[in-house]
């Protein structure tokens, strides 16, 4: 069987591709009730309490709990107490399988979970007199999970904390929203679990997927707030005590349906085989469908998985993760999960969804591009000569980037490390990495040396400055060249050096012959005339 490389698989074996928001987990909170002062002001203005105390809020919490249980009774839905360790999604799927209506509440679940709440603390003044003080603390109150089927969004749930200030959560799925929009508009499609497998109107499906925005998400939350028991009365809401929505977690998915299962398997084998020696980030790892912790005995390493195991590739940047896996043996799924918007200097408010969307989808494309370039790094003789000789650009002279130079290899490896960073990198970001790869302490590789090397890379066209900032980003040709340099080093120079001690023996000669054959094959793969 002829082994197809990553570039060939992506170019010739993808039958359907779709970018769409996947799962979103949102936080709903009342901004003015996030501090002790705000809590005391609420007690004074809304409940007429002169001395602030959490005891005074208990009747309000009791009314909300009673209203939730009364709602379950009058609506004829089950009130389920989740058992410890029970998967809530499994329970929801059982109820969903028997639901026949267009929309409505499936059931209400109850579980004790940790939450941030207010407590009254006793303090003493200078005269020794005690006085109450409101502080933030944690408790294990009941949370009510309201599982819903919405006409536009499909299955979702809203979770309410039963303690003041009644924080809420909303969990929904963008692919489920998309499926309902396609059905309502009469667009035929073949479903995939949590996705779309195929459609004759590819461009139209993508346009509709792009229509899911912050306004629609906020609207569905407000819609169900009006229908469900609300912890705040109408008078409280009129006074401005209303929920605001922020983003806790957002998943942005790129689904590429492949023509046959073997193609997807081949993709992962090639990705793993070709990226083991590229200077990957420390957080990049293969996951083996089993929990691996620091306590797990034995050694673990990145490797090509055996038959019967579905591989997945994980890349982590701060709290954001990019995951790539073979979905149902039919599609390549690449998805970026943003767990903290501040990692990208963006606020958590729902109105920032467009900016997060751009970052998430760009990260997916960037990962695929790096994998693509691992095989399809077309480099001409003129480009290679330009790198291995000094260059003059804009009247500025830059030294050569000589193949095999240890410092150049450290720079190329660092470029691969930072190729996926959505906002590029700064001088201080890469200096530590280059110093470590050179095996030097940071003070032995000074800031002036880093400046000199960045200038070399920029004038040779491997990186470019981000306009209006002190950041840099790798160019497309820079990515190709960085991958090429590391491939030749990993497959040529490094093995050759290890064979130096046996070069005069029969074993050494045979090894050098195998090395030469492997390097020739590699150069043919990347279409570089040796």
Q: Work out the helicity level.
A: 25-40%
Q: State which percent range the strand residues make up.
A: 15-25%
Structurally, how many domains make up the residues?
3
- Largest sheet, strands/sense/barrel: 11 strands, mixed
pLDDT < 50 runs, ≥5 residues: 276-293, 296-308, 526-530
What is the count of DSSP helices, taking H or I runs of 4+ residues?
A: 16
**What is the number of E strands?**
19
Shape category = globular
Span from first to last CA?
A: 26 Å
Please state the structural category. Answer: alpha+beta
How do the helices and strands line up, and which of them pair or pack?
Elements: H1 6-12, E1 14-29, H2 36-46, H3 58-75, E2 79-81, H4 88-97, E3 104-112, E4 115-124, E5 130-139, E6 142-150, E7 154-161, E8 168-173, H5 174-184, E9 190-192, E10 195-198, H6 202-209, H7 214-227, H8 234-238, E11 244-258, H9 261-275, E12 285-286, E13 312-317, E14 320-327, E15 331-338, H10 353-373, H11 381-387, E16 391-393, E17 396-398, H12 406-417, H13 427-438, H14 447-459, E18 463-465, E19 472-474, H15 476-498, H16 506-525
Parallel strand pairs: 2-3
Antiparallel strand pairs: 1-8, 1-11, 3-6, 4-5, 6-7, 7-8, 9-10, 11-15, 12-13, 13-14, 14-15, 16-17, 18-19
Helix pairs in contact: 12-13, 12-15, 13-14, 15-16
Describe what you observe in this structure.
It contains 16 helices and 19 strands. It is α+β, with helices and mostly antiparallel strands. The two termini are about 25 Å apart. Helix 12 (about 405-415) packs across helix 15, helix 13 (about 425-440) crosses helix 14 (about 445-460) and helix 15 packs antiparallel against helix 16. The protein folds into three domains: about 1-25 and about 170-210 and about 245-375, no CATH class; about 30-165 and about 215-240, no CATH class; about 380-525, Orthogonal Bundle (Arc Repressor Mutant, subunit A), CATH 1.10.10. The chain is about 40% helix and about 25% strand. The longest helix is centred in the last third of the chain and has 23 residues, at about 475-500.
């Amino acid at each position: 069987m002829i082994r197809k490389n990553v570039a060939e698989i992506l170019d010739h074996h993808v039958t359907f591709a779709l970018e769409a928001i996947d799962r979103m987990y949102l936080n709903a909170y009342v901004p003015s009730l996030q501090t002790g002062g705000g809590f005391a002001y609420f007690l004074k203005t809304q409940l007429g309490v002169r001395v602030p105390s959490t005891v005074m809020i208990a009747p309000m919490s009791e009314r909300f709990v009673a209203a939730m249980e009364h709602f379950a009774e009058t609506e004829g839905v089950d009130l389920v107490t989740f058992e410890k360790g029970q998967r809530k999604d499994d329970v929801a799927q059982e109820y969903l399988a028997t639901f026949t209506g267009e929309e409505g509440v499936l059931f209400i679940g109850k579980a004790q979970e940790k939450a941030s709440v207010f407590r009254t603390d006793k303090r003493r003044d200078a005269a020794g007199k005690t006085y109450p003080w409101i502080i933030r603390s944690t408790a294990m109150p009941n949370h009510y999970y309201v599982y819903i089927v919405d006409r536009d969004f499909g299955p979702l749930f809203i979770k309410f904390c039963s303690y003041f200030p009644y924080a809420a959560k909303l969990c929904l799925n963008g692919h489920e929203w998309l499926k309902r929009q396609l059905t309502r508009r009469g667009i035929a499609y073949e479903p995939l679990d949590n996705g779309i497998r195929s459609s004759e109107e590819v461009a139209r499906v993508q346009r509709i997927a792009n229509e899911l925005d912050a306004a629609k998400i906020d609207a569905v939350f407000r819609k169900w707030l009006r229908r469900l028991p609300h912890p705040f009365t109408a008078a409280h809401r009129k006074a401005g005590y209303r929920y605001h929505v922020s983003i806790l977690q957002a998943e942005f998915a790129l689904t590429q349906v492949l023509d046959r299962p073997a193609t997807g398997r081949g993709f992962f084998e090639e990705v793993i085989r070709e990226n083991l020696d590229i200077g990957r980030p420390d957080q990049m790892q293969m996951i083996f469908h089993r929990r691996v912790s620091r306590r797990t005995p034995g050694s673990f390493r990145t490797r090509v998985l055996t038959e019967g195991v579905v591989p997945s590739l994980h890349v982590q940047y701060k709290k954001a993760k990019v995951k790539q896996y073979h979905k149902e043996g039919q599609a390549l799924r690449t998805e970026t999960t943003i767990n903290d918007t501040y990692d990208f200097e963006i606020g958590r408010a729902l109105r920032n969804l467009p900016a997060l969307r751009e970052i998430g989808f760009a990260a997916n494309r960037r990962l695929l591009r790096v994998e693509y370039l691992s095989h399809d790094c077309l480099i001409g003789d003129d480009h290679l000569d330009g790198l291995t000789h000094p260059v003059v650009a804009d009247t500025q002279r830059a030294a050569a980037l000589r193949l095999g130079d240890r410092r150049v290899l450290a720079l190329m490896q660092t470029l691969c490390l930072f190729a996926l960073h959505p906002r590029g990198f700064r001088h201080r970001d890469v200096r530590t990495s280059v110093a470590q790869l050179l095996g030097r302490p940071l003070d032995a590789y000074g800031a002036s040396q880093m400046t000199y090397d960045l200038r070399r890379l920029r004038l040779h066209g491997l990186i470019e400055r981000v306009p209006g900032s002190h950041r840099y980003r790798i160019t497309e040709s820079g990515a190709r060249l960085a991958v090429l340099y590391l491939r030749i080093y990993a497959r040529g120079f490094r093995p050759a050096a290890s064979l130096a001690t046996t070069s005069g023996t029969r074993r050494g000669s045979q090894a050098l012959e195998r090395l030469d054959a492997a390097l020739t094959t590699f150069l043919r793969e990347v279409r570089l005339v040796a």
